[in-house]
Each structure stands twice: as structure tokens, then as C-alpha cells.
Design a protein that fits this description.
Helix content is about 70%, strand content about 0%. Helix 1 runs parallel beside helix 3 and helix 2 runs antiparallel to helix 3.
Length: about 325
């Protein structure tokens, strides 16, 4: 009986020739589809990033306007140092901000006109008379020579701890407080400034300004201790300081740089999603088109990277089945 199926070599080769173009066509279509979808996804990413960048610029514009208005108010009220800090902060973010450079020059000029000359250090006397030493300490106190006050009253305490002790302690408290805040404000002796304020607190409670300066200095120094060692912790510490005192020394600039370093570290470790988040956070501080492009690339890689499949823990102990009750122990339900 003849076989209905044609299994000859000629028929098989003809079928293979017909199937091969169809397979190639399918693969080509799949590749084109992937390219189209990938391009569409990347275009969507770019649109989203542009929206985010525009929002960041709008937020920064509002903040700079607020700082400018506050600076003008401080300038009119005679708070020249604070006004100068605000205008300097504005120019750091936007060097061409209208009027900021002129206002900064005006604040500096006012500071120079009203600047109090540095007090002359009161020399320690050779006298062993407590009354004379105390009189010199009062004179140093009146001139704002906090170094002299502290040194003279330390000498007095060594000679006669009970001599005008209450007034002397009050003068030491003020001198330590003022020297501590000044050291923190100058920035070169923050540790010494914190120590001064800690010592002052032994004589009495500190005012809010001194407490704030000490807290800011501690956060600043803590962030420095993590610099180059633990970028994540440096970022977290500086973020807290930025919320409390964004104009404290170069906090905003340090936070920006630490965030970029942390983002680069994450990208190098292959965590492009987390890196993209950090790059985006940096743009909330300072807008930089180069960093924005880097963030776009990291975000694109993140979206095109498949999520890791869940792994089955083969080492886990098998679940112990619940034993069935013995039929003999079952109590039948009442009929």
C-alpha cells in the first residue's frame, strides 16, 4: 500500500528551505521590535529626567529668591555677616543671580565699616594680688578679650579660688561661650570651639545659638571623619546638617560632592538604580548638565537591567508534616 507521507530527501530539503526564511524573518522582526521598544523606553526616560530637572530648577529658583529677600532684610537690620552668608550662598548656586553680587559687596563694605578691632591680649601680671588680677580680668572682659579673661581668671583661681567666685565664674562662662562660638564660626578650630562650649556648660546652661553652633560643628566634623572612608554615612550626616543649617560653612558643597562620590561608588559596584537616585539627589543641590547626562545613563541601564530571579533555598529543612490524629481518639460529633 502506498505511503501517504512523503519522506524522501527531496521533500525534506524543500521543507527546510521553506522554513529557514521564516525563522530568519521571525528573528529579524524580534530584533527590530526590541530596538523600537528600547528606544521608546529610553525616550520616556529622557522625558522624565527633563521634567525632574525642570522641577529641580524651579525649586532652586524659589529657594534663591527666598534667600535673597532674607538677605536684603538682614542687610537693612544691620545683620551684615548673616546677609553676606546668604548672598554668598546664592552666588555659589547661581553666579549670575541678579543683584546678589552687588548686595554681597554692600554687606562686606558695611562689615568693614562697623568691624570691631581685635582686642589686644591682656598680659598676665606678675602680681600675686587677687584684687589686681581681678581688675585686669574685668578690663579684658569689657574689651572682649576672651583669651585674656580666661587666662587671668585661671590665674586668680589658682591663687584664691574663693575671691569673688560668683562674678568670676560668670565672666568665665561668657568668655568660654563667646570664644567657643567664634572658633566654630571661623572653622579652623571647631574641635576647640566645641570644647570651650562644653566647659562653659559646666558653669551654666548655654543659649540656643551656642547649642546650635555646637551641634552643627559636631555633625560637620562627623561627616569629615567619614570622608573617603564611608560615602554613604558621609552623605547621611551631611543631609541632616543641610536640613538644620544649609549655610553652615560649605555644607551644601560638601553634600553635593559626597553624593556624587557615593553615586560613582554605587555605579562601579553595578548598582545603577541606586546610583541614578544619588545622581538625581545631587541635582537638587547644584544643577549640572554633565551630571544630568550621567544620571540619565544610569537610569537607562537600571530600567534595562532585569530584576534578579528569586532563588530557591535548597538548604532549608523540609517542612515537618502535621501528624494526623489517631482515628481511635476522635470523638464523633453528636447526631
Amino acid at each position: 500500500m502506498p505511503n501517504d507521507e512523503n519522506t524522501s530527501p527531496t521533500a525534506a530539503s524543500r521543507a527546510a528551505r521553506l522554513t529557514r526564511p521564516l525563522s530568519l524573518l521571525g528573528w529579524s522582526f524580534a530584533c527590530v521590535l526590541l530596538v523600537v521598544l528600547g528606544g521608546a523606553a529610553f525616550a520616556g526616560i529622557r522625558v522624565g529626567l527633563n521634567v525632574r530637572e525642570n522641577n529641580a530648577r524651579a525649586t532652586q529658583t524659589v529657594e534663591l529668591k527666598q534667600q535673597y529677600d532674607l538677605g536684603v532684610t538682614d542687610l537693612a537690620a544691620g545683620r551684615y555677616a548673616l546677609a553676606a552668608e546668604r548672598f554668598q550662598y546664592i552666588l555659589t548656586l547661581d553666579p549670575n543671580y541678579p543683584g546678589a553680587a552687588e548686595k554681597l559687596t554692600e554687606a562686606h563694605a558695611a562689615m568693614n565699616q562697623t568691624a570691631t578691632p581685635a582686642p589686644t591680649r591682656t598680659p598676665l601680671p606678675a602680681s600675686q594680688d587677687p584684687a589686681e588680677i581681678f581688675a585686669l580680668a574685668r578690663k579684658a572682659y569689657a574689651s572682649g578679650d576672651w583669651e585674656g579673661v580666661i587666662a587671668l581668671l585661671a590665674q586668680l583661681h589658682a591663687l584664691d579660688p574663693s575671691y569673688k567666685a560668683v562674678e568670676a565664674d560668670g565672666m568665665v562662662f561668657v568668655a568660654l561661650r563667646n570664644r567657643g562660638v567664634a572658633r566654630i564660626q571661623e572653622g579652623d578650630e571647631m574641635e576647640a570651639g566645641i570644647f570651650d562650649l562644653d566647659q562653659a556648660e559646666a558653669f551654666g546652661p548655654l543659649d540656643t545659638e551656642a547649642v546650635n553652633y555646637r551641634a552643627w560643628a559636631r555633625l560637620y566634623l562627623e561627616a569629615q571623619s567619614y570622608w573617603g572612608v564611608n560615602w554613604q554615612q558621609a552623605v547621611e550626616t551631611l543631609k541632616l546638617l543641610y536640613v538644620l543649617a544649609p549655610n553652615f560653612h560649605d555644607t551644601s558643597r560638601k553634600l553635593y560632592q559626597a553624593t556624587l562620590n557615593y553615586a560613582a561608588q554605587l555605579a562601579a559596584a553595578g548598582d545603577d538604580c541606586a546610583a541614578a537616585e544619588q545622581y538625581a539627589a545631587s541635582q537638587q543641590l547644584f544643577v549640572d548638565p554633565v551630571i544630568a547626562n550621567t544620571q540619565a545613563t544610569a537610569q537607562a541601564v537600571c530600567l534595562l537591567t532585569p530584576s534578579p530571579a528569586p532563588t530557591l533555598d535548597l538548604t532549608a529543612s523540609p517542612a515537618t508534616p502535621t501528624p494526623l490524629p489517631d482515628a481511635a481518639t476522635l470523638t464523633p460529633a453528636p447526631s
